[in-house]
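re: that chain from earlier
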Amino acid sequence: MDPVGLQLGNKNLWSCLVRLLTKDPEWLNAKMKFFLPNTDLDSRNETLDPEQRVILQLNKLHVQGSDTWQSFIHCVCMQLEVPLDLEVLLLSTFGCDDAFTSQLGAEGKSQPESQLHHGLKRPHQSCGSSPRRKQCKKQQLELAKKYLQLLRTSAQQRYRSQIPGSGQPHAFHQVYVPPILRRATASLDTPEGAIMGDLKVEDGADVSISDLFNTRVNKGPRVTVLLGKAGMGKTTLAHRLCQKWAEGHLNCFQALFLFEFRQLNLITRFLTPSELLFDLYLSPESDHDTVFQYLEKNADQVLLIFDGLDEALQPMGPDGPGPVLTLFSHLCNGTLLPGCRVMATSRPGKLPACLPAEAAMVHMLGFDGPRVEEYVNHFFSAQPSREGALVELQTNGRLRSLCAVPALCQVACLCLHHLLPDHAPGQSVALLPTMTQLYMQMVLALSPPGHLPTSSLLDLGEVALRGLETGKVIFYAKDIAPPLIAFGATHSLLTSFCVRTGPGHQQTGYAFTHLSLQEFLAALHLMASPKVNKDTLTQYVTLHSRWVQRTKARLGLSDHLPTFLAGLASCTCRPFLSHLAQGNEDCVGAKQAAVVQVLKKLATRKLTGPKVVELCHCVDETQEPELASLTAQSLPYQLPFHNFPLTCTDLATLTNILEHREAPIHLDFDGCPLEPHCPEALVGCGQIENLSFKSRKCGDTFAEALSRSLPTMGRLQMLGLAGSKITARGISHLVKALPLCPQLKEVSFRDNQLSDQVVLNIVEVLPHLPRLRKLDLSNNSICVSTLLCLARVAVTCPTVRMLQAREADLIFLLSPPTETTAELQRAPDLQESDGQRKGAQSRSLTLRLQKCQLQVHDAEALIALLQEGPHLEEVDLSGNQLEDEGCRLMAEAASQLHIARKLDLSDNGLSVAGVHCVLRAVSACWTLAELHISLQHKTVIFMFAQEPEEQKGSQERAAFLDSLMLQMPSELPLSSRRMRLTHCGLQAKHLEQLCKALGGSCHLGHLHLDFSGNALGDEGAARLAQLLPGLGALQSLNLSENGLSLDAVLGLVQCFSTLQWLFRLDISFESQHILLRGDKTSRDMWATGSLPDFPAAAEFLGFRQRCIPRSLCLSECPLEPPSLTRLCATLKDCPGPLELQLSCEFLSDQSLETLLDCLPQLPQLSLLQLSQTGLSPKSPFLLANTLSLCPRVKKVDLRSLHHATLHFRSNQEEEGVCCGFTGCSLSQEHIESFCWLLSKCKDLSQVDLSANLLGDSGLRCLLECLPQVPISGLLDLSHNSVSQESALYLVETLPSCPRVREASVNLGSEQSFRIHFSREDQAGKTLRLSECSFRPEHVSRLATGLSQSLQLTELTLTQCCLGQKQLAILLSLVGRPAGLFSLRDSTRHTEKLSFPRLEACALGFKKERKKERRFQRILN
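^ sequence. v structure.
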């Protein structure tokens, strides 16, 4: 073209532009689609010649405004081969605002209006504004069909084949591979107004696109929620559904509408359904009401798709949710357009409460290996680089894990398409190691070769960052400069669409092709722009939790921004960033170092599971080994991940970080939705020691992937797979993999609904796991026959120590033998034979089959099985259905099963008749130690001797006793055995048969019988008393809680006479506690085997029977005179010695007199004790009178009128009576009569009247009566509230009591008053007075008493408040005949006494009296 001709005017420039665009109509169609998303390209203008079509399209672009027109001109200059001169003219003329409109209008006016605006939707009025016209039914149907056809045609035009951008493969826009879809098992539940939509996903239940809507079942959910993380293809799938419907594949729907919440959020007014469908999507050509009525009538054939539900969760105002969310809620609940189908897409997180509880939840899980390969094959379908791309993916594990995200798979293919022609195979490992560098290579691939538009990238990144900060994902032409729009369109960084906010209100909106691309460009701006400093940069390096808080209404838009910033901090990205920063490498390096420093601080913190995953992503993106090592070492030993979704990429990143860890780690995935191929990401992770998965999503595909990973984990000791949907196919893979993990110590397959055969297949691996300690197969619903097979495995497998099955629980506990590493590496058959040999020698098995519905025939099979097995530590068959016959069989087999500790047959339907059978069955079992049967509590427990040595010793002692019993009339039991038949409803009629059954057991050892809690009554007690002699020597018999009357209780006392083994009878009448016991000492001697040699044994036993007292303890019983008379009459024939202990709430004087009167009739009585029994004030006199009535009484002790004890002497004991009446409230009025009763006793060695109420007057009276009382020992009058008067009277009384040898009084805190007597008159007496606080007026009385007590030879005064003066006066007043007299002043205040003064007083006293007297002074 002649340059001079180009400068003639704008008209010539316009012609040049038209001719240029005519050469490339496909490119122009693509740009029309970008700038005018809703424009029809090929409807009615196909007949026009090419130039006319170009002019029409240019007119449509120009009328959109200067921003759109300028952006289009920039695209022309960037993408087409435009001569430099023409490019300058286009940018200078059309690239800015000018008067070109007039030139353009001349060309445009020649076109008809219908053609000019053919591509635009026709404006219409609101649906409610047109009047309703009466039409026939046929016409209404025609209008509806016309609109439905228009709706389908519009969708077809929208999804016609798109034109690829410059340098892009055609498949870049054509490839579609459906991702993995999984239907959730649990419906929604929204009690809090919001729920998490990432719960419990099934594996093995792939959902195809056509299966998303099950229209065959009218009762099925009409709301479907499609959940997927960013990049999983939710929006793509929504558009794919529209395209399939337009192509006629979804015939179940007559109409399909697609809305995006990012556009609906711009609506601020409330909408009706018709306004939503017609104003914001596509309007009918006429009669909106008629069309809407048809849609409403056929709503079950209408599908509404809402994309981006998570973007609709705006904070609620005071009036509730926004208008669009309100409309969406009504559509979901069926209050508007009832019956229509609704599908919404959303990222996992907080979902609105408006979703119905029955909504179907479908999870998008991205690509697995076959889908990635399928996508690559489609992408490179007709290109020679297809094989190279597949090889790159197979050899690059990191890239393969990134491709699990469909959006990243597309980016990876684009990068490989760009890299493969110019690089050697295998370069992807270096060029595409991280997600950040994947996006970096994509930008380079989309840029012109050798030219990186730095300024445009940074400016577009600034727009992206501003959008993230303000929550904006839709931009208009006013938000982005035209050159940037052209740049984004040219490099496929921006996409365009029509934004409708109402009738006649529409404009073109722009958005980044993907949200992650917006985050990447924002990260580029932060790292390379000189406008951002490092302090501002570090504020964006944060970790976002995937647990959405209830108060957080909307998910964040910058989830990947910290990851991209971490990736750009890699040294590999520094040249790229330096180029963007125009060579400012120091600034870039400082920013990179700042990001790494923030990550180091985060690595040392205690983080939740979601933040740990985010941190691992960030650290892995940096490619910094030092940071990765710090992060790995900082992870806790127990690392839980609970209730948030995880992808293969997440686990692959975690594995990459753990490679830098030395210590083992425990990984626990509980309730985390996991992709089926996630375990493949753990291949080779040698740091995992415990690995646990608990999720309904895990199924056969998951198990197969896990089986490939397990053998590569060298440290793995615990494997848990619970709550899954694994079937036989998945278990078969794991069973093959487990023997390849010999280091495993614990395996759990709980709650997996495994079948019987699958469980049997699992236990087959037990011999091949030499270190296994626990196998958990609980909650898998197995039958009884399978359980018996498992019991056989437990019996035959040499390492099994316990099999525990209880309802749904099923656990194997193993105890592997201690073996060296060399032994573990030997052949499996050799290991198995060695293990069986060692196990047969020392193994003991515990078998617990509780509540397993075992019956009689199962018990027979189990007995046959156990008889061939090892020694049994415990057998627990409680909670089954063995009944009487099954319990009898197990009891008979007990002696043959070598049970060392316990056999439990509780809760098996045993009856009273069955009790007799069980007793007979175990009568010959030597090892039985205890049998406890309680029918009320459904208890049947056998306890056996634990040590084999004890059994051997028992047999030796039995042989000795066999020879002993030939010469002794009584049977000596061998060992202790307990038979507890409690709460069995036993009556008198059952006793005879029971005693017959017990007869064999009585000869095998010391027998403890317990019949408590039955219904024997008086008749049973009497009958049992008759049968007891036939049972031989028992050690104890418990008859508590059998409803016995007082007569029956007293009747049991006769057993003392009939049963030689009975030594103690304890009866608590009100609580019905009745226990008959033998001699404990003798029992212990026999049980321990300490038997004396014969014939000394017989002599020793006879001696014990004569010397060990028999004891009757009767408490909580109304002790009336008749009962006491009968009791004493019964005890007459009881062999002695006898101890009688009685206790009741109150014992009357009449009852006490009756009891005391009977004492002479019980010569064998050695002790009578009344404990915790209220006695009257008369009781001291009754007891004192007993001293004279019953000469055998050697001691009476009454305390506080509640405790009385009488000790009786035998004929050989010395005489002398002690009596004590402490705390009995004795006062002056009682003393004279009380002393009279004491005087009747011939020999009183000690009398204790302390703690009474004598006072000074009572004590004076007592001292006056002392000469009449024949006391020869101690009289204790302490704590009787006496004063100095009593002390002075004691001094004055001493002359009249010649048998007093010593008296001591302490009136201080000790409050003691004791007088010691002797049998004969004493020549010398001792008096000790302490803390008597004598006053001066007492000195003369004290001197008078001392003068009269001629036999007093020693006086000790301690702290009696006598100073030097009082002592001198006392000494001067004492008049005594010649003889020895000792005065001791033991006051502690010796510093107040003057030795010269005391000595002078003594000398003066000696001269004045002129008598020979020895004065001895001792100062202490």
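The chain is about 40% helix and 15% strand.
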